[in-house]
Design goal:
By secondary structure, the protein is of the alpha/beta class. Helix content is 48%, strand content 14%. Helix 3 packs parallel to helix 4 and helix 4 runs parallel beside helix 6.
């Protein structure tokens, strides 16, 4: 499988699963664009793999519009949008102590950010070859989470993916949502550290984490033409 002649935008491509996906897509021949709030790591990642970098805050529509206003003149079309940007906030905070601000901030990044990226990528995707949107939800969407806010936001991403798939199918845009399990990322490590501080390290030390490249292989497959018949949610370890 190769991604020659594919232009792939990876939002959240500076670290973790997004970075692993950007590296793999570039290795397989895609023209990779990285967009991320983390400017230093984003520029570093782009330079390493020969990609373009665009600063972008998914929770701010003005920032998203600005990024796509820069992408549009350079690329007449996108073949794939992979939205991996996300945050985990409020882990292990009791329900009656969780602030509305924390809940809203989590939804702003994880759910509204996914909506905004899809919204502003759509005009370029309509001109792409077998275009696809891949959203990153989480196993937390179906199994629960250490954070009320995170679980709710990822459940929303899964529902958003279903709606986008139904609405955009007539335009030739395929939509898939991936629900990773326990993956070794900085965000997951922060949750493990918070749990260790709460109850001690014994049980959490037994948790087996998957490598980001495992999810990246799936994401790279989904943006390829080989995945043309794949529909719906896909869960990983």
């Amino acid at each position: 499988m190769n991604l020659d002649h594919k232009t792939v935008l990876i939002v959240g491509g500076a670290m973790g699963i997004g970075l692993a996906t950007a590296e793999l897509c570039a290795e397989r021949g895609a023209q990779v664009l990285i967009a991320d709030f983390n400017v230093a790591d984003g520029n570093r990642a782009a330079a390493k793999i020969g990609a373009e970098f665009y600063p972008l805050n998914v929770a701010d529509e003005a920032s998203v519009k600005t990024a796509f206003a820069q992408i549009g003149p350079r690329h007449s079309a996108l073949d794939a949008l992979v939205q991996t940007a996300g945050v985990m906030m409020g882990s292990f905070v009791p329900l009656d102590e969780l602030s509305v601000d924390t809940f809203k901030q989590t939804l702003d990044v994880n759910l509204i950010g996914s909506f905004l990226c899809a919204k502003h990528a759509a005009p370029l995707l309509r001109r792409g070859h077998k275009p696809v949107i891949v959203l990153l939800s989480s196993g937390a969407a179906v199994q629960g989470s250490s954070s009320y806010a995170y679980g709710a936001s990822k459940g929303g991403v899964s529902s958003l993916g279903i709606t986008l798939a139904n609405k955009l199918a007539s335009e030739g845009i395929r939509v898939n949502t991936v629900l990773p399990g326990n993956i070794d990322t900085a965000m997951k490590r922060s949750v493990i550290e918070a749990e260790a501080q709460r109850i001690g390290p014994h049980e959490q030390s037994k948790l087996e984490l998957g490598e980001p490249i495992g999810v990246a292989r799936l994401l790279a497959f989904l943006v390829s033409d080989d995945a043309d018949y794949v529909r719906g949610d896909i869960r990983t370890r």
